[in-house]
Automatic annotation (TrEMBL):
Name used for this protein in its record: SoxW family protein
UniProt domain Thioredoxin-like fold: residue ranges: 50-133
Keywords linked to the UniProt accession: Redox-active center, Signal
Pfam families according to UniProt: Thioredoxin_2
Length: 194
């Protein structure tokens, strides 16, 4: 009987509990199950992402970032987004002020904070999306197909991840990200969500 009560209580708590947010790591950055702990040699990360059929994406965050917290507590836990990221992306997290060594796609080894300066990252969160193939000698900032600077609501964030994953940046025509996003707003819930 106690076992049955324990199972029922656990099931009730699981249903009643809100979406789980990311945990904070020792570095003060949010950690999710879909983030990869790599040696931060981005050439190797790109090759591994390609081998898994995923897109390489780099998340810049920093300790105490209220916008990063908002994203990790309110946006990324939504299953429609977290499942999409996990299924389609190889995520490498970087610390805007970090000292961990990173090897850029052009082969240069530098600290996370030096990489942030080199790539023009000014604030957090900033998400850089990479293509599957990068011409030799290009840095991350030169190769990025899109950059998402800042914290956005679920609809905008999902649309950006979808737009990149579907390679809509390569399509000819007039539907850049803003037009794509506007169309998706209209299609989603009759325009009730962003």
């Amino acid at each position: 009987m106690r076992a049955l009560i324990a199972v029922a209580t656990a099931a009730t708590l699981a249903v009643a509990s809100p979406l789980l947010a990311a945990t904070l790591g020792d570095d003060g950055l949010h950690k999710t199950d879909w983030m990869r702990d790599t040696f931060k040699d981005l050439r190797e990360d790109l090759a591994e992402a390609n081998a898994e059929g995923k897109r390489l994406v780099i998340f810049f965050e920093q300790r105490g970032c209220v916008y990063c917290t908002k994203m990790h507590e309110e946006v990324f836990p939504e299953p429609v987004l977290s499942d999409y990221i996990e299924e389609n992306y190889f995520v490498v997290q970087m610390n805007l002020h970090g000292d961990t060594e990173v090897t850029d796609l052009d082969g240069e080894a530098l600290s996370e904070k030096a990489a942030a300066r080199k790539w023009g990252i000014l604030f957090t969160p900033t998400i850089l999306f990479l293509p599957e193939e990068v011409p030799e000698g290009q840095s991350v900032s030169q190769a990025a197909v899109s950059v998402m600077p800042g914290a956005f609501a679920l609809g905008t964030t999902l649309d950006m991840f979808t737009w990149v994953n579907e390679k809509r940046y390569e399509l000819d025509g007039d539907e850049d990200f803003q037009r794509y996003h506007a169309r998706m707003i209209q299609e989603r819930d009759n325009g009730k969500t962003d």
